[in-house]
Structure formats: structure tokens, C-alpha cells
Recover the amino acids of this structure.
């Protein structure tokens, strides 16, 4: 799915800001994969020990940690580590909510809506990123921080 | 030769013999005896209809039908009579009364019934327990965030995607022009 979303990005801005080569900046792609794999390995244990509510808390918290950290634009190695958190949160939420939505009645339709909204987010975020980065650098992450806090609130409510 | 035919609960048997009252013509030397165990004539008629179809399909030729009383099958034949017996509601009520006497509330009387042999798990609906509506909305929102997260960084717009989209637009415009001219 990542390859489909090659529209616009923060990558050139990262390159410019941290003065990186193209290879080094692609570590940002690699680190969420590590988080995702660790999420896949830890998923069963997390479900057993904390349940779905634990996932619903931990995933947004991981996102929150990642985005707050990125919004503070630390040095580049810290940024890579923070992207691991974002990948980890994505991984556990992806698995848990896919399984949950698929287990509902009319699971195909519910999953279709779920992934349709995934695509909607994937469509909107580069647009938002370009429009906000064009005006002010890193402002986009503060917008993101608001989104994630809302997400954490909404999931933790239920 | 005894051939049990699968006819649900009617328990029909096809027996090849030619010793009984024959009502139909025989084309070859086969003859099929058709015995129905039920006593009502209606079931016999239905059975004979089925049997004629069966015989026509299997290219046999003679149907012989006898009275049900002529040949009694053994009592342990395939027919299994399942009867629903009336259970007096007093049994449950007595259990309940005992429980009430002990003042141990909170125990359901159905706890004393045997477990059903087949249980069916019913899938939850996305909106049926009211909390599920909020859960589903939260999941949709979470996936919006995740999609936004995954698409946030990517290939530069200015280097690759711009030229790609331009090329694709050109190709698409050629296609549409061709379509319109044709």
C-alpha cells in the first residue's frame, strides 16, 4: 500500500532539513517496517495480556509518542526510532481492527468501509502535508498531533 | 434382493419379486415390489408416485404395489419414531421453588437444563450493541489516521510524480481523442 501512495511527501523536506542523502533518508521507510514486524510478533501476547482494550490504548499511544516526538523535530536517528513507534502502532491496530471488523456480521462490507477510509486518509494526508508545508515547515505535524489525540480519545472512550 | 430407497421418513423398500398382485405390465422379466410401511393411503400414494419416478429414472420397467399389511417389515427397521413428550412445567417450577426457599437468588433455572448439543455463535453487528457503533466509527477514524500516516512520506512530487502524472494525462488525452474521433 505504501507504494501506491507515492503522491507527495515530507521526504524531500526531510532531506533538505537534515541535509541527508537519498539512501539515508530512506531509513524512514525501513524503520516502520521494523515496528510492524515487532507488532506482528507481539500481537498475540498483547491480546492475551491486555486484550483489545489494551490494543485500543497502546496503538494510539504509540502514534501519539511518535508524532509528538516528530513534531519536536529531533535529530535524525531519533526520528528514525520514532518512526518505529508509528509503525508499531499501525501494526497492532491494523491487525486488531481488521480482525474485529471482519468478525462482525456483513464483515465484507464493514471491512470495505474501513479500508475505504484508509484510502481516504492516504489521499488527504499528502494534500494536507503539501499545503501546510508549503506555508510553514513542520506545521503539518502539529495538525497531526491534534488528529491523533482525537483518535486516542475516541478509541479510549469505547 | 432388497434395495432400500432413500425417501426420508417414509421408509420404502423395493423388493424384486413377482409373487404379489401386479398392476402394471412387465416389459422384461423384472418386477419391482413396492412396500410402504405407513398405514394411511395418502402416504402410500405419495410413495408410489415417488417410486414411479425412481423407476423411470433407473430404467426399470415394472411397478408392483402391494398393501401395507401384506408385508410387515421387522420392527427394528429403519424407521425411528421420535416423539416429543410433554414435560410438565412443574418440574422447572419445583426447582425454582427450591431455590427460592434457599434464598439463593441469582441462579437461573436454565442452569439445571442440559446443554444443547449444537450451539451457534451469532456474529455481532456493527451497530447492534450500541457501543459497537462507536467502536466502528473509531475504527474507521483510526484507519483514516493510519492511511494518512502511511502516505505521509513518499517519493518527491517534483521529481517523479509530476512527470508521471503529466505523461499519464497525455496518454489519457490521446485515448480520449481517439475514442471521440472513432
Amino acid at each position: 500500500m505504501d507504494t501506491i501512495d507515492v503522491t507527495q511527501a515530507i521526504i524531500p523536506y526531510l532531506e533538505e532539513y537534515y541535509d541527508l542523502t537519498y539512501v539515508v533518508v530512506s531509513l524512514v521507510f525501513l524503520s516502520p517496517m521494523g515496528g510492524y514486524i515487532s507488532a506482528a510478533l507481539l500481537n498475540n501476547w498483547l491480546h492475551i495480556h491486555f486484550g483489545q482494550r489494551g490494543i485500543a490504548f497502546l496503538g494510539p499511544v504509540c502514534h501519539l509518542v511518535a508524532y509528538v516526538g516528530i513534531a519536536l523535530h529531533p535529530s535524525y536517528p531519533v526520528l528514525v526510532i520514532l518512526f518505529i513507534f508509528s509503525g508499531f502502532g499501525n501494526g497492532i491496530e491494523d491487525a486488531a481492527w481488521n480482525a474485529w471488523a471482519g468478525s462482525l456480521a456483513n464483515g465484507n462490507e464493514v471491512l470495505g468501509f474501513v479500508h475505504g477510509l484508509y484510502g481516504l486518509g492516504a489521499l488527504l494526508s499528502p494534500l494536507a502535508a503539501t499545503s501546510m508545508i508549503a506555508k510553514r515547515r513542520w506545521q503539518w505535524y502539529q495538525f497531526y498531533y491534534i488528529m491523533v489525540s482525537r483518535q486516542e480519545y475516541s478509541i479510549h472512550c469505547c | 434382493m432388497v434395495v432400500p430407497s432413500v425417501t426420508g421418513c417414509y421408509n420404502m423398500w423395493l423388493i424384486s419379486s413377482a409373487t404379489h398382485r401386479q398392476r402394471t405390465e412387465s416389459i422384461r422379466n423384472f418386477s419391482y415390489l413396492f412396500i410402504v410401511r405407513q398405514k394411511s393411503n395418502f402416504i402410500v400414494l405419495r410413495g408410489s408416485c415417488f417410486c414411479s419416478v425412481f423407476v423411470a429414472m433407473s430404467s426399470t420397467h415394472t411397478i408392483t404395489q402391494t398393501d401395507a399389511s401384506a408385508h410387515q417389515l421387522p420392527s427394528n427397521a429403519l424407521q425411528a419414531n421420535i416423539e416429543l413428550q410433554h414435560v410438565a412445567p412443574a418440574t422447572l417450577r419445583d426447582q425454582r421453588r427450591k431455590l427460592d426457599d434457599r434464598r439463593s437468588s441469582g441462579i437461573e433455572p436454565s442452569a439445571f437444563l442440559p446443554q444443547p448439543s449444537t450451539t451457534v455463535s451469532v456474529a455481532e453487528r456493527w451497530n447492534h450493541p450500541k457501543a459497537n457503533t462507536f467502536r466502528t466509527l473509531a475504527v474507521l477514524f483510526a484507519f483514516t489516521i493510519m492511511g494518512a500516516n502511511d502516505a505521509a512520506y513518499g517519493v518527491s512530487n517534483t521529481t517523479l510524480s509530476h512527470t508521471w502524472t503529466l505523461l499519464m494525462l497525455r496518454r489519457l488525452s490521446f485515448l480520449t481523442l481517439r475514442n471521440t474521433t472513432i
Notes: Confidence is low (pLDDT under 50) at residues 1-62, 177-182 of chain B. Residues 136 and 167 of chain B are 40 Å apart (CA to CA). The helical segments of chain B are 41-57, 89-102, 130-152, 157-181. The beta strands of chain B are 2-4, 12-16, 32-36, 63-65.
